[in-house]
């Protein structure tokens, strides 16, 4: 038995479907999603607790959050003042991503007592010490499996916080190549600007060359067709 699933590849489409499934559960469980997004409502819908504790840094640096699958708990680091606003939402959504994609939920639900006795909570939770969840990870280079797991959780967070149809509604009357408009959308959605830009680029709605601040229209327009006029 293992509380964590073995590493597996998920396509972007598969991760988006998993995030949409959580949005559906939120509706069913009477915590319907609303924007600016409150990720704690997704946790409530899934029966996951959110707790704030001081998490000391370890030898590899600061820890933003962790997930304790056996306790169905996400712990956010109360010692980090920057863990608020959009970064807080993104971090909670990221941890929910770990819960959905990486925790062996049958084991977590069924074998709680046994695992608590034999492994100890901290050992079981070790894999899910999240460091820079939400910000730098958007640009992370995936060199090992842990990086890929972190990328998956963060991509899930983007899909949960910013579903396509919500983005399509929020972009009406706005110019995606104008930073001021993006900042207004970011406020509406309750995410960080970095979350929004990463999501829009991964959808192909905008394109920002590396090292540049100039935003170009993407290759895809929201109805899924190629934007022939701007390319
Ligand atoms: Zn993580």
Molecular structure report:
The chain is α+β, with helices and mostly antiparallel strands. The protein folds into 2 domains: 12-161, Arc Repressor Mutant, subunit A (Orthogonal Bundle); 165-217. 46% of the residues lie in helices and 9% in strands. It is built from 10 helices and 6 strands, in the order ααβββααααβααααββ. It has helices at residues 12-28, 39-46, 85-102, 105-110, 112-118, 121-125, 145-161, 164-170, 179-189, 193-203, and strands spanning 49-53, 65-68, 73-77, 129-130, 206-207, 216-217. A 4-stranded mixed sheet has the order 1-3-2-4. Helix 2 (39-46) packs parallel to helix 3 (85-102) and helix 3 (85-102) crosses helix 7 (145-161). The chain is globular and about 50 Å long. It binds zinc ion. Zinc ion is lined by residues 94, 98, 130, 133, 150, 153.
Helical content, roughly? 40-55%
What is the element string, with H for helices and E for strands?
HHEEEHHHHEHHHHEE
- Outline type: globular
Q: Classify the secondary structure makeup into a structural class.
A: alpha+beta
Write a brief caption for the model.
The protein has 10 helices and 6 strands. With 231 residues, it is an alpha+beta fold.
Quickly list its features.
Arc Repressor Mutant, subunit A, 46% helix, 231 residues, 2 domains, four-stranded mixed sheet, disordered C terminus, 10 helices, binds zinc ion, Rad_response_metalloprotease
Write the layout of secondary structure elements.
Elements: H1 12-28, H2 39-46, E1 49-53, E2 65-68, E3 73-77, H3 85-102, H4 105-110, H5 112-118, H6 121-125, E4 129-130, H7 145-161, H8 164-170, H9 179-189, H10 193-203, E5 206-207, E6 216-217
Parallel strand pairs: 1-3
Antiparallel strand pairs: 2-3, 2-4, 5-6
The structure holds zinc ion.
